[in-house]
Amino acid sequence: TGAFLEVRNLSVKFPTDDGVVAAVNGMDFTLERGQTLGIVGESGSGKSVTSQALMGLLKGTSAQVTGEAIFQGRDLVTLPESGMRRLRGRNIGMIFQDPLSALHPFYTVGHQIAEAYLVHNKATKKQARAAAVDMLGRVGIPSPDMRFDEYPHHFSGGMRQRAMIAMALICEPELLIADEPTTALDVTVQAQILDLMSELQQETNSALILITHDLGVVAEVCDNVLVMYGGQCVESGPVDEIFYDTRHPYTLGLLKSMPTLTTKSGRLNPIPGQPPSLLALPQGCIFSARCEHAALAGDGVCASQRPQFTSEDGHGTRCHLGLPQILSIRNSR
Ligand code: SF4
Ligand code: MG
């Protein structure tokens, strides 16, 4: 028997007038029940497109999705939309960046959450209302019993975000994919929502994919981390190893750009340069144009050869440098 979710060589290409955009290029990962996987990277690195492919949201578009995503024996890549529709909600839930796309403007917020509950539970209307009110309270909506009967446009952006999270969580999906779920919320509410997601995840032994550019959030809740760059996984492993035994120059750059006590003025140290064009990925390492350490690998190998992803004890990296070289880079910081 395989993993709960096993993704193999997942790629997504978008044909455009300017050529083919290679948004996701050969992603491999597995996820077990009860685990949280953080997918991190800058915007445009392919994080959201990966989640859209897993949710089947690219079906019926011009996107070309290849590879496999085996979820409990079913391949989400080839599953028709009708099958996907049956999985969405109870089996696979998603929290989007944009709450308006998830909430219907013509129904009250409470009604929509109660309906989501009723789809998956044998319950009376009264019980569904009680469950929805309870969940609205748990995501931090004040006076949930009164807010239940309000429409989405009565809610502020932050409140809508919480309502959408409540709607996803009340279905108790076995796999929850959350794409920047708390980005729009203030830090206190963000922490509260992340705690709630972890709590419900433990209660239901579900799996969580958390997509974020915020390494602080990753450190807080994730078991494993996958770092994306240019549509590829450049490093993946247990969260502690990614932070304390970092093996890829891009991850090192990301960690350096995190706000710390010394840069709490808000000044970050972003990695200089731009991500590669997904219309024409470089022949060599996709990070080579921005990597400070390419010379260390010697012979211009970084510019001419794409490094393979190599993994040891569950910690993998895609770089021509050997471990001793990476260690010397880390020690020189
Ligand atoms: Fe840098 Fe070369 Fe490693 Fe790419 S392969 S991350 S360019 S050292
Ligand atoms: Mg995104």
TrEMBL record:
Belongs to the ABC transporter superfamily. It is found in: Cell membrane. SUPFAM superfamilies: P-loop containing nucleoside triphosphate hydrolases. One of its GO terms (cellular component) is plasma membrane. This is Peptide/nickel transport system ATP-binding protein. Coiled coil: none annotated. It comes from the Bacteria. Gene3D superfamilies: P-loop containing nucleotide triphosphate hydrolases. GO terms for molecular function: ATP binding; ATP hydrolysis activity. It is a peripheral membrane protein. NCBIfam families: oligo_HPY. Keywords: ATP-binding, Cell membrane, Membrane, Nucleotide-binding, Transport. The keyword NAD does not apply. It comes from Arthrobacter cupressi. GO terms for biological process: peptide transport.
